[in-house]
Design brief:
Blueprint: E1 16-23, H1 40-55, H2 59-64, E2 71-78, E3 87-95, E4 101-110, E5 115-124, H3 138-148
C-alpha cells in the first residue's frame, strides 16, 4: 500500500473525481510495444480536463476569469507497463488545498482494474502578469465554497 500523495485532513471536503477511458495507440508505444514513459503526463492531462469540465474549473473557466494555472510539480510512479491496444482508465482526483493551488492525484488502471501508474501534479494559481496569488482568486473561492457546501458531487 502506498502512502497518499495528499493526506486528508478532518475538516476538508471529500476529493472530487473524474474518470476517462482510453486505449493505447500505436504512436504512444516504444519499440518494445509498451507505453513510452513520456506519454503519461498527457494521460494525466486527459483526466484533468474531464474533471475540470465536470466541476466548472476547466481551462476555459480559468481563461474567462484571467487565472493562470501552470504546473509547478509533476510526479509519476510507474507500477507496470501498458501495452499497445490495451484498454485503460485514468482517474483524476482533486484534493482540497487551503493555498491558492490545485492538488491533483492520478491513478491509471488496466482493463482488469489493476493499478499500472500513479502520480500527482501541483498547479499554482497566478494572475496574467505571472504573480502568484497568495489567496484563491474570487472565481476559485466561489468554486471552493460550492465544494465545501457539498454542491459538487
Amino acid at each position: 500500500m502506498r502512502r497518499p500523495y495528499f493526506p486528508a485532513k478532518g475538516d476538508h471536503p471529500p476529493p472530487l473525481r473524474a474518470r476517462v477511458q482510453r486505449r493505447v495507440r500505436f504512436e504512444e508505444v516504444d519499440p518494445l510495444g509498451i507505453v513510452w514513459h513520456g506519454r503519461y503526463p498527457s494521460y494525466f492531462e486527459d483526466a484533468r480536463v474531464v474533471l475540470g469540465e465536470r466541476y466548472g474549473i476547466g481551462y476555459d473557466d480559468f481563461r474567462a476569469n484571467q487565472v493562470l494555472a501552470p504546473i509547478k510539480k509533476l510526479h509519476i510512479d510507474y507500477v507496470k507497463p501498458l501495452r499497445f491496444g490495451e484498454e485503460f482508465s485514468i482517474e483524476g482526483v482533486l484534493h482540497w488545498a487551503e493555498a491558492a493551488r490545485l492538488n491533483f492525484e492520478f491513478v491509471i488502471r488496466d482493463a482488469r482494474e489493476q493499478v499500472t501508474t500513479t502520480g500527482f501534479s501541483v498547479q499554482l494559481l497566478m494572475d496574467p502578469s505571472g504573480e502568484v496569488f497568495m489567496v484563491p482568486p474570487p472565481f476559485c473561492q466561489a468554486f471552493r465554497e460550492r465544494w465545501r457546501a457539498g454542491e459538487l458531487r
